[in-house]
Specification:
Helix content: 25-40%
CATH class of the largest domain: Alpha Beta
Number of strands: 16
Family: Belongs to the peptidase M20A family. ArgE subfamily.
Number of domains: 2
Shape: elongated
Distance between the termini: 30 Å
Order of helices and strands: HHEEEEEHHEHEEEHEEHHEEHEHEEH
Subcellular location: Cytoplasm
GO molecular function: acetylornithine deacetylase activity; metal ion binding
CATH topology of the largest domain: Aminopeptidase
Pfam families: M20_dimer, Peptidase_M20
Strand order of the largest sheet: 1-2-6-3-7-15
Strand content: 15-25%
Oligomer: single chain
Keywords: Amino-acid biosynthesis, Arginine biosynthesis, Cobalt, Cytoplasm, Hydrolase, Metal-binding, Zinc
Number of helices: 11
Radius of gyration: 24 Å
Structural class: alpha/beta
């Protein structure tokens, strides 16, 4: 392992980028690689394996096991590269002009690499307050992997003092983000030849009524603007995102699916908004469909859910984050993170702070600046010093 900190970060990031951990694939080889790296320092993590046996989170404690500490949290999965125009292999790290290119460099293997690169300093520091590494899976598909890990953490005798979730914020201290609730509505109509269309039940047309109602409510949410100026979009948002239906031009469609989501400012607002839409559809649309034919109707299923984050600006974890980052400001973001689940599942106060810009996340030729990674390493270094004071 290279001795200088920047070289350690580069080497570890290159290793992590080399694992294709798109969310529909296993992350076990990457987890095994991290475990092998930690073992060289005499550190053993705790694996939390999913029900398929193909995915795992890793919980690591460096320092005393019987004292409350601080969590550095990152996810291992990345979004797909299919259909994107990359100028090089997305799973091979490329450095140009101070920028490190590769899938996941910003979101968020860069942060994980920094944390791992700082392990030697953590071990040498003789920490009085422990530092935990929380490495999860399937964040991109709904913050899936962190949930069972946090349920295990919540059972422990000693709960962490706080968590830093390293999503890309350009090392700004983020105290809040919107929650999200996603729902799929499946409309079941009655197929008939289009020449006798009145005898059928058109699933797409009833779905269109739902879409229109979603749009109407989205406009109302936008009009009810929040006084919380920390959000760049200062209101909850609601939209239809995916629609599938129909088989042929001359067939009355008997099925149509509609995916819609709400991103709410309030802790539970996202679910409250979508629940109200479901209730409206069951009261207004489904009875009309069943009146045409008893087998018709609508099925609803939850496809994604996480609460909003709203950490008090004067909370101890926020004050500490500002001190470690060397800044006095804080902000909120529209995109979701695992931070709200640390708070809601394990009662761990959390902030979001990490290297890189969200503008680079999920893009072709994704990159993170080396300067951002070094800034993040400075943050972790100052956390280590803080944790030696007890």
């Amino acid at each position: 392992m290279p001795s200088s900190r920047p070289d350690r970060i580069r080497k570890l990031l290159a290793d992590l980028i080399g694992f294709d951990t798109v969310s529909d694939r296993t992350n076990l080889p990457l987890i095994a690689h991290i475990e092998s790296y930690l073992a060289t320092f005499g550190i053993k993590g705790e694996r939390i394996v999913d029900t398929t046996g193909e995915k795992a989170s890793l919980w690591v404690t460096i320092g005393p096991q019987d004292r409350p500490g601080f969590v550095l949290s990152g996810h291992t999965d990345v979004v797909p590269v299919v259909g994107q125009d990359w100028s090089h292999d997305p799973f091979k790290l490329v450095e140009r002009d101070g920028k490190l290119y590769g899938r996941g460099t910003t979101d968020m293997k860069g942060f994980v690499a920094v944390c791992l690169a700082m392990v030697p300093e953590m071990v040498e520091a003789r920490l009085r307050t422990p530092i935990h590494l929380a490495i999860s899976y399937d964040e991109e598909t709904g913050c899936v992997g962190v949930r069972p890990m946090l349920r295990e953490v919540a059972k422990k005798k000693v709960r962490p003092l706080g968590a830093f979730i390293g999503e890309p914020t350009e090392m700004k201290v983020i105290v809040g983000h919107k929650g999200k609730h996603g729902v799929r509505a499946t409309f079941h109509g009655l197929a008939r030849h289009s020449s006798i269309a009145p005898e059928g039940v058109n699933a797409i047309e009833y779905a269109a009524e739902l879409i229109t109602e979603i749009r109407r409510r989205a406009v109302a949410l936008a009009a009810a603007r929040s006084t919380d100026s920390l959000y760049d979009v200062p209101h909850s948002t609601l939209l239809t995102s995916i629609v599938h239906g129909g088989a042929a031009l001359n067939i009355v469609p008997d099925t149509c699916t509609v995916d819609f989501e709400c991103r709410g400012i309030g802790i539970t607002e996202s679910r409250e908004v979508t629940d109200a839409i479901v209730a409206w559809a069951k009261a207004e649309l489904e009875p009309a469909m069943k009146a045409r034919h008893p087998d018709c109707g609508i099925d609803f299923e939850e496809i994604l859910d996480y609460p909003a984050l709203d950490t008090a600006a004067d909370a101890a974890i926020v004050t500490l984050a500002k001190s470690l980052a060397g800044r006095n400001d804080h902000a909120k973001v529209a995109f979701g993170t695992e931070a709200s689940l640390f708070a809601s599942i394990a009662d761990i106060p959390s902030v979001v702070i990490g290297p890189g810009s969200i503008a680079q996340a999920h893009t072709p030729d994704e990159f993170v600046e080396m300067a951002e990674l070094e800034k993040c390493a400075g943050f972790v270094e100052r956390l280590i010093v803080h944790c030696t004071k007890g």
